[in-house]
From TrEMBL:
InterPro entries: HD/PDEase_dom, HD_GYP_dom. The keyword Kinase does not apply. GO terms for molecular function: hydrolase activity. Residues 234-429 form the HD-GYP domain. This is Metal-dependent phosphohydrolase. The keyword Mitochondrion does not apply. Residues 422-451 are annotated as: Disordered. The lineage of its organism: Bacteria, Bacillati, Actinomycetota, Actinomycetes, Kitasatosporales. It comes from Streptacidiphilus pinicola. Keywords: Hydrolase, Membrane, Transmembrane, Transmembrane helix. Signal peptide: none annotated.
Length: 451
């Protein structure tokens, strides 16, 4: 974690401690605090267990696991906000956060997670009490109590979202615009829905059902979380399919090892600069990884040839986007990624292949991958030439913008690289030969990306 992130996390932890002490932590009742804390811990553990999948799909599962955890523990936290004083309510999520798995530095991350949830619950409880919610709840004044409940749910969402966005910006140096959109806007609707479930739990708790209300409310949520976990396992299978395809290409072509991942990473950088929806970013990430899958249909001697290709070899290599598209045509979950694979060697001026598309006829994914592919190709060192410096590759992309590359995509990549940096591929021991890439484009001379 970066130093700025550590300072930020420390400030949030101290703030949470102050709020808990100032909010009347001794108000209890402790039996209710203990039961709610145990429920939160159990829900969090159950969802983590259900969504535990293979490491190969960890990136794809992360967002889904977060959503499932919202479904499991948020009603418990909102119930705590409505049933307890702010200081006591803030203690409910602490045990679950402290005992949950965490990446290094584990102690700091666990303390941060506890502080984030504690502050969100504290703020929700303070607002609910400030709007006279407890009195309305005790007198069963419906629908009047819905107002304080909705406001409390929104406050929890905003406070937790702002804190989460802050740690990503300070610790990971993420783009603030993307972070705010992803953390806040996408969590508002689920927050309101789960908030009403938390209100139902609080109403039943104060009635004849008591603590048994937790079973009535959380059992359906547990079932839905289990269903969601099955969906996540399906997503994991999708990721395993992609990994297997990439591994097959890497076995055949040494250069591709790492190239596909770098193209995917550069494509995602461009997508985030363009503020694509997260679903499209995920699809584009796969398209970048699989953009050269058609190399499985290209003769190995061409892939491993040391030096420029002849005209006949060049024509043979030009078939690889078509081969790739045919290979993935039946994989339904790829969606828009298939068009990115097929058309990533089209040119804006219509002189590309395989279809000779021009301008906006070229799918957006293909225009993104074309820039990412060329950028990694130029900055990668090969056996017969050293990679170009990043700034020189950027200059070359700018020169070819409008004729070969989409200027919007070029500008987005340049902004992203200058913000996040770029680490070009370095030759490894035993890499004596490398193909003429990007495949189908002749080795760029110092005068341009294409000969």
């Amino acid at each position: 974690m970066a130093r700025g992130g550590r300072v930020y996390a420390g400030a949030v932890i101290v703030g949470a401690l102050v709020c808990v002490v100032a909010g009347g932590v001794g108000a209890g009742p402790w039996s209710r605090v203990a039961v709610l804390a145990a429920l939160h811990l159990g829900c969090d553990w159950l969802v983590r267990r259900q969504t535990r999948v293979g490491a190969a799909a960890a990136g794809a599962v992360a967002a889904g696991e977060a959503s499932a955890r919202w479904a499991a523990f948020f009603p418990v936290l909102l119930a705590a906000a409505t049933l307890l004083r702010p200081g006591s309510a803030a203690l409910v999520p602490v045990l679950g956060a402290v005992l949950a798995p965490a990446a290094p530095p584990r102690a700091l991350r666990r303390a941060w997670n506890a502080a984030q949830l504690a502050l969100g619950t504290f703020a929700a409880s303070a607002v609910f009490h400030g709007l006279d919610g407890p009195a309305q709840l005790a007198r069963h004044q419906f629908p009047a109590v819905l107002g304080p409940t909705v406001v409390a749910a929104l406050v929890f969402c905003v406070v937790s979202g702002v804190l989460a966005a802050g740690i990503r910006i300070t610790a990971e140096r993420a783009d603030p615009r993307t972070v705010w959109h992803g953390v806040l806007l996408r969590s508002l609707v689920p927050c309101l829905g789960y908030g009403l479930i938390g209100l139902m739990m609080a109403v039943l708790w104060q009635g004849r059902y008591g603590v048994f209300s937790a079973v009535l409310v959380l059992l359906p949520l547990t079932v839905s979380s289990w269903v969601f976990a099955q969906f996540q396992r399906e997503e994991a299978a999708h990721q395993a399919t992609v990994s297997a395809l990439v591994q097959a290409v890497e076995i055949k072509d040494e250069y591709t090892r790492g190239h596909s991942e770098r193209v995917s990473r550069a494509s995602v950088l461009i997508a985030r600069e363009l503020r694509m929806a997260e679903e499209r970013v995920a699809s584009l990430r796969i398209a970048g990884v699989l953009h050269d899958i058609g190399k499985l249909g290209v003769p190995t001697r061409l892939l491993r040839k040391n030096g420029p290709l002849t005209d006949d070899e060049h024509e043979a290599v030009q078939l690889h986007p078509t081969f790739g598209h045919e290979m993935v045509r039946g994989i339904g979950f790829l969606g828009e990624a298939r068009q990115g694979i097929l058309h990533h060697h089209e040119r804006l001026d219509g002189r590309g292949y395989p279809s000779g598309l021009a301008g906006d006829q070229i799918p957006e994914f293909a225009r993104v991958i074309a820039v990412a592919d060329a950028f990694d190709s130029m900055t990668s060192t090969r056996s017969y030439r050293r990679g170009r410096p990043v700034e020189e590759a950027v200059t070359e992309l700018e020169r070819c913008a409008g004729s070969q590359f989409d200027p919007t995509m070029v500008a987005a990549l340049i902004r992203a690289v200058r913000r996040h940096g770029w680490r070009p591929a370095q030759p490894r021991p035993g890499d004596e030969a490398a193909p003429d890439l990007p495949l189908g484009i002749r080795e760029p001379s110092r005068a341009g990306v294409v000969g």
